[in-house]
């Protein structure tokens, strides 16, 4: 078994689908979909909504050797998702990694573990999702790792080439063949929602519009 496995870079989601996804909200899709949402402990450090193509990485606890190599392979439009194999102590992503990812044209980073150097991440204006901050960082220990293989991010299996949508509410991973339809449905749902909110703001009763009041009244008999 080789120490490192680096599979070919995945095909990228089309620019048209990415544009649609970036008009959708993860919380809108959450009205009907129950899978593909990473654990809510993985939160954004900046207020952003971005979408892109998943590039996947697995690296062990104190080591970030493969991460540094992977940064040189990223392409514009990619989102790098890092499976930390359960480690919650070592921050693999900080200011230097952020600069390299942004220079490569990556859209964002998602780490199932802590990051560090939040001031530098903010200064770079680079969208980042992680499990908070940690002061202890990884090193170039050459322990091995795997790239562009299926990984686990916040309880979700992520395949290289999946569509990824990240916003203030969380991270959603979609099979590429489902991304466009889900984005279009979300955009339409959001438009209807705004229309409904406008009516409620003018005095319409939310319970009457949603059907909740009818259910409550029926249940009183």
Automatic annotation (TrEMBL):
Cofactor annotation: a divalent metal cation
Question: Which InterPro entries does the annotation name?
Answer: RraA/RraA-like, RraA/RraA-like_sf
Source species, domain of life: Bacteria
Q: What is this protein called?
A: Putative 4-hydroxy-4-methyl-2-oxoglutarate aldolase
Which species does this protein come from? Pseudoroseomonas ludipueritiae
């Amino acid at each position: 078994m080789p120490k490192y496995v680096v599979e070919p870079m995945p095909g990228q989601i089309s620019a048209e689908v990415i544009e649609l996804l970036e008009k959708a909200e993860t919380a809108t899709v959450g009205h009907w979909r129950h899978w593909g949402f990473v654990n809510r402990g993985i939160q954004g450090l900046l207020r952003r909504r971005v979408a892109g193509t998943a590039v996947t990485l697995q690296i062990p606890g104190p080591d970030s050797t493969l991460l540094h190599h992977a940064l040189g392979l990223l392409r514009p439009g990619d989102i790098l998702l890092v499976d930390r194999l359960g480690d919650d102590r070592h921050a693999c992503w900080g200011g230097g990694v952020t600069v390299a990812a942004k220079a490569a044209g990556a859209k964002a980073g998602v780490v199932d573990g802590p990051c560090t150097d939040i001031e530098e991440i903010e200064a770079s204006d680079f969208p980042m999702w992680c499990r908070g901050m940690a002061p202890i960082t990884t090193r170039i220990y050459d322990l091995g790792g795997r790239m562009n293989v299926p990984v686990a991010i916040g309880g979700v299996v992520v395949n290289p080439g999946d569509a990824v949508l990240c916003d203030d509410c969380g991270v959603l991973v979609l099979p590429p063949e489902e991304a466009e339809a889900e984005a279009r449905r979300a955009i339409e749902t959001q438009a209807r929602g705004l229309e409904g909110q406008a009516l409620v703001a003018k005095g319409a009763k939310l319970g009457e519009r949603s059907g909740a009041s009818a259910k409550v009244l029926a249940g009183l008999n």
